Amino acid sequence: MRLAPYFLSLCLGLSACATVPQAPGLEGSTWRLVRFEPRDAGASIQSGDTARYTLNFGSDGRVAAKLDCNRGTGPWQVTKANAQGGSLRIGPLATTRAMCPPDPIGARLPQDLDAVSSYRLQDGRLYMHLPADAGTYVWEALAP
User: Fold this and answer.
1) Residue range of the domain that includes 132
2) Residue at 56 is within a domain
3) What is the mean pLDDT of residues 63-68?
4) Structural domain tally of the chain?
C-alpha cells in the first residue's frame, strides 16, 4: 500500500517521456519568401531580394509582415486539417505605404496575403495557396 504513490509517480513520469511530439505549426515561426508559383504553370515569380519579404506568426494570433520597404500587421487564424496543413486566414493587414522600388512580388503580395485560403508544411517550407488554385507562395523557415 505504501508503494502505490511511488508506483503512480513512476508511471506518470514514464508516460510523459513517451509522449510523441506534435508536428510543428505556424505559431511562433518566421518565414522568408522563396517565390510565387502561378496557377498557369508559367515561370515562377521571384524577387530580386527575397529577404525583403518575411512573415512572423505570433503566438498571440497576430502576424508581422515585412513587405519590401513596408511593414504590416494583422490577425491570422489556422484550422488544421492534418499535421501538414489546413485552412489559413491572414488579415486584413494594416500596412505602411512607402513607395518601394519596383519588384514583381512587391506589387501583388500585400493583396494576396488577404486572399490566402490554405497552407501546407513540407520539407521545411510553407506553401500558402490562393483560392481557385490561383497560385502558391513558397516560404522557407528562418531559424528562431
Assistant:
1) 22-141
2) yes
3) 96
4) 1
- Rounded to whole angstroms, how far apart are CA atoms 142 and 92? 24
Residue 111: all three cell numbers together: 493583396
What integer pLDDT is reported at residue 102 of this predicted model?
87
- Supply the CATH number for residue 120's domain: 2.40.128.270
What is the average pLDDT across 33-52? 83
Given a cut of 50, whether residue 101 has pLDDT beyond it is yes
Cβ of 13: how many Cβ atoms within 10 Å?
10
Q: Would you say residue 3 lies in a domain?
A: no
Asked whether 142 and 48 are in contact (CB, 8 A), the reply is no
Cα distances (angstroms) measured from residue 119 to each of 33, 45, 64, 91, 105: 14, 19, 17, 15, 19
pLDDT above 90 coverage of the chain, percent = 59
Bridge partners, residue 3, by sequence? none
C-alpha cell at 63: 502576424
Residue 52: band (very low, low, confident or very high) from pLDDT cuts 50, 70, 90: very high
